[in-house]
Every structure is written in C-alpha cells, then in structure tokens.
Amino acid sequence: AIPPDSIVSRTVYQGPTLRIILFGFAAGQELSEHTSTKEAILHFLDGQAHVVLGGSEAITAAAGTVVRMRPNLAHSVYAEQPTRMLLYMIG
User: Fold this and answer.
1) Which long-range contacts (CB under 8 A, 24 or more apart) does 55-62 make?
2) Other beta carbons less than 10 A from residue 79's beta carbon
3) What is the pLDDT of residues 28-68, one digit of tens each?
4) Which one, 36, 39, 79, 84, has the greatest CB density within 10 A?
5) 29, 20 in Cβ contact below 8 A?
C-alpha cells in the first residue's frame, strides 16, 4: 500500500552489478530532477506518471512502459495517479 502524500521504496534485489528498487508513488508525488552515475531502466508496473529526461524530453508512462537512461542523464518522475515502478540500476 502507498500512503497518501508519500513515495515509498524497497530494494528487492542487490547484486554486484545490478540493483532493483520498487517505488510506490501516491498521486501528485514527484522525484525532482536528479542524475545517477549508473545506467538505469525505469519499468512502470501500473498507474500513470510524467517522466522528463534531459530537461526537455517528456514521456507519459503507464503500465508496461520501459525507459532506458544513460549515466548522468537528468530526469524527474511525477505521479499523475498512484503508480508503481521498478528501477533497475546497472553497473
């Protein structure tokens, strides 16, 4: 369950070159623009979110959407509905 007005996360796998984190976003919650030094894949399980890559490329993500991001790419995620997403951090 995702509490109102919150973002929850849980690491579901941690290996030497891969980390998988499950995120749950309440509607209206946002991960503000940030970067990661690792390659990453966002896999949306349900809900709907607005993803911005590199400050300008906007994607509407729903169940089944997969977004690949190169290292150091600025990105943000805004949940328009309650949303669950897997984050795969590679490297």
Assistant:
1) 61/85
2) 24
3) 999 999 999 999 999 999 999 999 999 899 999 999 999 99
4) 79
5) no
